[in-house]
Amino acid sequence: MAPDRQVTLSARIPVAVLGATGSVGQRFVALLHGHPWFELTAVAASERSAGKRYRDAVRWMQSSPLPRAIADLEVVNAGTPSGVALVFSALDADVAGPIEETWARAGALVVSNAKSHRYDADVPLVVPEVNGDHLALVREQRYGRGAIITNPNCSTIGLTLALKPLADAFGLSRIHVVTLQAISGAGLPGVPSYEILDNVVPFISGEEEKIQRETRKILGRLDGNRVQDAEIVVSAQCNRVPVVDGHTECVSIELGRRASLEEVRDVLADFTAEPQALGLPSAPERPVHLHAAEAHPQPRLHRDLDRGMATSVGRLRPCEILDYKFVLLSHNTIRGAAGGALLAAELAIARGLLAEHPASSVVAAR
Amino acid sequence: MAPDRQVTLSARIPVAVLGATGSVGQRFVALLHGHPWFELTAVAASERSAGKRYRDAVRWMQSSPLPRAIADLEVVNAGTPSGVALVFSALDADVAGPIEETWARAGALVVSNAKSHRYDADVPLVVPEVNGDHLALVREQRYGRGAIITNPNCSTIGLTLALKPLADAFGLSRIHVVTLQAISGAGLPGVPSYEILDNVVPFISGEEEKIQRETRKILGRLDGNRVQDAEIVVSAQCNRVPVVDGHTECVSIELGRRASLEEVRDVLADFTAEPQALGLPSAPERPVHLHAAEAHPQPRLHRDLDRGMATSVGRLRPCEILDYKFVLLSHNTIRGAAGGALLAAELAIARGLLAEHPASSVVAAR
Amino acid sequence: MAPDRQVTLSARIPVAVLGATGSVGQRFVALLHGHPWFELTAVAASERSAGKRYRDAVRWMQSSPLPRAIADLEVVNAGTPSGVALVFSALDADVAGPIEETWARAGALVVSNAKSHRYDADVPLVVPEVNGDHLALVREQRYGRGAIITNPNCSTIGLTLALKPLADAFGLSRIHVVTLQAISGAGLPGVPSYEILDNVVPFISGEEEKIQRETRKILGRLDGNRVQDAEIVVSAQCNRVPVVDGHTECVSIELGRRASLEEVRDVLADFTAEPQALGLPSAPERPVHLHAAEAHPQPRLHRDLDRGMATSVGRLRPCEILDYKFVLLSHNTIRGAAGGALLAAELAIARGLLAEHPASSVVAAR
Amino acid sequence: MAPDRQVTLSARIPVAVLGATGSVGQRFVALLHGHPWFELTAVAASERSAGKRYRDAVRWMQSSPLPRAIADLEVVNAGTPSGVALVFSALDADVAGPIEETWARAGALVVSNAKSHRYDADVPLVVPEVNGDHLALVREQRYGRGAIITNPNCSTIGLTLALKPLADAFGLSRIHVVTLQAISGAGLPGVPSYEILDNVVPFISGEEEKIQRETRKILGRLDGNRVQDAEIVVSAQCNRVPVVDGHTECVSIELGRRASLEEVRDVLADFTAEPQALGLPSAPERPVHLHAAEAHPQPRLHRDLDRGMATSVGRLRPCEILDYKFVLLSHNTIRGAAGGALLAAELAIARGLLAEHPASSVVAAR
């Protein structure tokens, strides 16, 4: 489906990546290579890496080669904002909070993958196909010309993408989710191999609370200048499994009203949203791919669908306890982290939130 | 805890293993090595293997060496019963049914790991700590002096062991279970490595139906000469994960009456049953090990507890939707297959079901 | 580096894939999607699959979606040649031989990945950058207008690509190679997961002999209408490791004459050959990528370099016993199978071996 | 084979483990549980852990439960020697050197798994079946009543066990070895899972040098009060593979004199040494198990042979370049670390090196 409107920029926007040497930081660097709107001009990391060339500071673990132009960039100290208007933060949560604020106060639009500001009342926690309207919160923020936008936890993104069309069509009252999460979600060095080879670890610190809390905020309703959390009961059990990329989630749902299996299926299959309508560069063709094969989706086969930006749903069927159950799969470091943040930035720009950047106003009806 | 009664046999009972070359068959052979009650005297397999020495017919995949005395046994045709009084069947389900009947009609007590007879009204489906009393069904069977006893599906065994004390203490109305199952559960050749390395397969053919159906039969009540299925609603989602041995299950339960977390914990921790009281050779010291560490149980660390016969339970906590949730772990080819069948045979003998074998009557109060 | 000549075709050549449902067959289908020279018009498989639509006959295991146009093709019986001029064979070795002959006799150029005809004196065993001149052998073949070309074993392809420039520059007398091979090399169902998870299997049937024999033929010299095997002693030890794609090989070499480390490095780094000069569609930019990082190459990081068509070489250093040692990595189902065969076909066409196809004559100097 | 002499102790010797919370330290704790000669009375670690109970300081990763008596021990500071006569060191190499010296000066016999003192001229580097006579070096040491004995690198132990009988029978001139090493060899946290899942890392820092150097020292000849390194050329290439435990090594050897395959096989199969003759508690029944099956040995099947203390050798056959080649397998954290050190201590005691301990003199001819 071709987009019905089109956003064009007069020039590429210079961007910085904070925490550029880590696992998610590297994904940002890889995804920004060749991006039609953004040009990576600064890589920032901790003081320890500052002053080195990026190629020497990073232990590059992506399967695409490190772009040469980026390899030679000098790493700057993430603690010292430069004048870049758009910043992607892949900082660790234990340092992200104040550093992101500093960049915002210096005038940057900060799109963060860290949890530090996710639950702030004036900070949007955004999945572009789900709650792009929450971006309006930034107008109330305390950071002057700058602002902070946050990207949810990797497990929550795929989950809310599948839930959104159901919530809109039928309402949602209860969600039971058991995750089987990939090891790349834990960053670098992350999960020791001795803990996870031939093993399952049935606990991920803080993850269940994040899923339960973030799902309610994301599916919540913007009410003036705040978000009313959705009144959904969420029960999560999170497991780490020996898979490189791609979180699998086993979901049982209770709807707000009765719906047939066909209705549920159609609503999922037909789901499309603003990023698709605008043809944003990182938007998947469809946010949800519905699979009919009995053993799909699977991480290795489907995590890269739509360049890792789509959520796959399969095994949709009635649940003996709640109403329906299904299995979903989402790429945790693309859609669930760097790719999701890029898409959020694209939507923010399309909605005119990068004020000083003249190109951002060009949203044309077709 | 020392057993309060003691079963002793005057001599070891000769036994045969049907399907001895497969994955579960090999486990039977390994576990029977050095068994105090049983002596493996016959290995039976398909016509293709019959006549070969066992060492040549089997592709031995156990980490303990193939016992020398067994290595030299000539494989016999499983289709032709010999006079052995006790028979363990590890046959594939597509051939097990009629072959097991033939052995039973020839007078043997057949303890089967196949699903073929699990749902027959006159065949007990037994987890010794859970429903040993169901063994009484064999007195009604149609096989003359012989009989058939069945062992449940590997996922169901661990599940019912954890549920039994809860069902007795509080009642159980609804069970939501998501499994993360090891590849050894699929036998040999089983799951192709190309399907499961760096992957999850969210479907195991027939498995969800087995868990849902068998749990109700096992937790059911013996009523005269039949079993009344328990009135429990079970919802299962089964996944295959790249783990060698040990099924992990994420369980949410709704109790029949209100109970505090402490009550639930105590009931699980204190669980003990007839196999422990009798000190049966294959009985674990405790059927359920309750773990307090936040990331336990894990397959690689805990599958071998109590020689692979114990079920581990951890992460016990309230469920936001049902009453409580927890994670359980059970060794799928020991407790969940060969070891479970051995224990069932031991209990049957202790209860005097191997009529012709004089030793079986010696159940002494201490 | 831009190619110095350019091959262009007036129209895409219709091609068939034999054994299209297997692991390598699927790779052919995936790689042919969007190929500038070839159009997949027929998928052939065993009688069992014939008559079904391809989507129903195949258990698609590629990470790219099954192309829709192909999904609807009706599978034809591989035993019955159609009039297609170019055929890729991914048939199992136990049936490939006579079927491929039938297609050749029917006039097709058969490019085979099976071993059946690799050692025939009149059949070229081709790695396009190494011994494209051996293609001349087909003019002597007994198949009328048709011909058979073969692609080597997956381990041999990467090995000979790294050895070729060294053999040309310095001569080669002895090669010691230990492989760590991915599981996809074994096809489907291939290696059971129970054999390879948390394990190494230090034996692959027939593999060591293939490497030893094929290396000598490929590096041999075309002498009139036959190939003189290279006089190189090869010692191989083959291991299967739990890696999805990408064969790693630890190679020690003895050169024909003394050479410094710098000379060896330069020769590898500068290697380029006819497929690069012609800019063939499947040719990698460089056949060998030389890595300087101390722990490179690695399967997950480097198997997809140059779309899986490049061989990576790293850890080049003196060997305490022979002259030099290094580690190489090659994608076993792309370069080592389907992609290698495509490139061989492209070179054959550029050299005018697809006689009836007029487009094949267009090899223009730039 | 029953031992021909017997060592008995009048009482168990109290021992301490330094670095008790790490991966190898945990193995020491597990193996010392129930040891007939030794009683673990002190667990020592870094200052950070000192003062905590062991159960709280350790992240227990063994598949056997943490022994209760040990769980309650208070961790002491490894930097402060106590009066324990026998000490096992599992300290990291960056701190081990001076701490081990302190304990030796305080009078302890220190058996170390660290590399710090391995190459000291007066420190024996011991594999008990290979060079037990090197223990005599400790009489020349500078540590007063105490002494330091070292255990080699995990890869070297298995290798020298297989080489020893060949060196004695035929001489050895050149060794080419390629290792496929398990992840447990890297300790905790060790190899990040993101680096090794679906991957091979063809480099282990310092490992090749250790194998090359230690093999020459261990196979060297004690000449008065120093060791003459063996004049063997060793070429090593070390790889990390996704295997939990068990190092696989592909070995090619050149003998000092011509020998038939049968002679080589017999010499390996018949190998036995002093630890077997003395029936030391940790000695394997046979140091080398020779396998005939074409695909053996394999880590998962054979690492636990003889309680993890045996080395497996298989695929013995002529090498096209050197004389013979074979595959060996050895458990890297049992035989290759903690178990090897225990056996070295047992041999030292049997040879009377624990002077003050009266029990050490009891070596009786049977």
What can you see in these coordinates?
The structure is a homotetramer of 366-residue chains. With 366 residues, chain A is an alpha/beta fold. Chain A has two domains: 5-152 and 338-365, NAD(P)-binding Rossmann-like Domain (Rossmann fold, 3-Layer(aba) Sandwich); 154-332, Dihydrodipicolinate Reductase, domain 2 (2-Layer Sandwich), CATH 3.30.360. The first copy, chain A, is 28% helix and 23% strand. The first copy, chain A, has helices spanning 23-32, 54-57, 68-71, 93-105, 128-131, 154-170, 193-196, 207-218, 261-269, 274-278, 299-302, 334-350; strands spanning 5-7, 13-18, 38-45, 76-77, 86-89, 109-112, 147-150, 172-181, 221-223, 226-228, 233-240, 247-255, 288-290, 311-318, 324-330, 363-365. Chain A has a six-stranded parallel β-sheet, with helices on both faces. Chain A has a six-stranded mixed β-sheet with strand order 11-8-12-15-14-13. A two-stranded antiparallel ribbon of chain A has the order 1-16. In chain A, helix 6 (154-170) packs across helix 12. Chain A is globular and about 60 Å long. In chain A, 59% of the residues are buried. Mean pLDDT of chain A is 94; it is low at 358-366. At the A-B interface, strand 8, strand 11, strand 12 and helix 11 of A face strand 8, strand 11, strand 12 and helix 11 of B.
Task: Note the run of SSEs of chain A as H and E.
Answer: EEHEHHEEHEHEHEHHEEEEHHEHEEHE
Q: Largest sheet of chain A, if any?
A: 6 strands, parallel
Overall CATH architecture of the largest domain in chain A: 2-Layer Sandwich
Largest interface: A-B, 40 and 40 residues
Major sheet: arrangement of strands of chain A: 4-3-2-5-6-7
Q: What is the total tally of β strands of chain A? A: 16
